[in-house]
Amino acid sequence: MTKLLKEQFVQDCISNYLSKLGYHKQEPKGLREHGVDIKVKHKNFGRYYLVEVKGDPGKDVKSPGGSRNSCMNSAIGQIITRMHTNRKRGYKYGYKYGIGFPISFKERVINKIPYDVCDKLNLNLFFVHPSGVVEAYNDKKLKALQK
């Protein structure tokens, strides 16, 4: 049986991963970002990353697959409600978005979220291993898997 990953562990691993890419933590400000799990800003330019994170269902959950589907749908809905549309430059310049899950979600999420949706929404997917390693998928990487 694989180790169940709690949401806080997944969030910490993704935050560390983004930190290595030059992003640093920001406190949520304003209504749209309220409640977002991770908000970081790049240290060299004004690009933000907003990421919604979910953990594994508890060991006592009767239908872990159903719970993962529900968590995936919830994460998508939560990140969409935080998307900014009032930027003067192109929508891909100011904000990047992500949803992050334990590795146990990978097959389900990759098969359910079309790469062209990720492209249009500037959405990236993150999967965390029990070791703390993060796999990141943008629309191009997802397209290669979905062909």
Task: Produce a short descriptive summary.
It comes from Candidatus Giovannonibacteria bacterium GW2011_GWA2_44_26. This is Restriction endonuclease type IV Mrr domain-containing protein. β2 (38-42) and β3 (48-53) form a beta hairpin.
Structure write-up:
- The chain is an alpha/beta fold.
- It has a single domain, classed as Trna Endonuclease, Chain: A, domain 1.
- Helix content is 39%, strand content 22%.
- The protein has 6 helices and 6 strands.
- It has a 6-stranded mixed beta sheet.
- Helix 5 runs antiparallel to helix 6 (139-146).
Task: Provide keyphrases for this structure.
39% helix, Trna Endonuclease, Chain: A, domain 1, Restriction endonuclease type IV Mrr domain-containing protein, alpha/beta, 147 residues, single chain, six-stranded mixed sheet
Distance between the termini: 30 Å
CATH topology: Trna Endonuclease, Chain: A, domain 1
- Helical segment count: 6
Q: Using the CA coordinates, give the radius of gyration.
A: 15 Å
Structural class comes to: alpha/beta
* Low-confidence region ranges: 28-33
So, CATH architecture?
3-Layer(aba) Sandwich
Tell me which oligomeric state these chains represent.
single chain
For the secondary structure, the number of strands is 6
Largest sheet: 6 strands, mixed
What portion of residues belong to β-strands? 15-25%
Estimate the helix proportion, in percent.
25-40%
List the domain count as a whole number.
1
The top-level CATH class is Alpha Beta
Shape: globular
Organism: Candidatus Giovannonibacteria bacterium GW2011_GWA2_44_26
Protein name: Restriction endonuclease type IV Mrr domain-containing protein
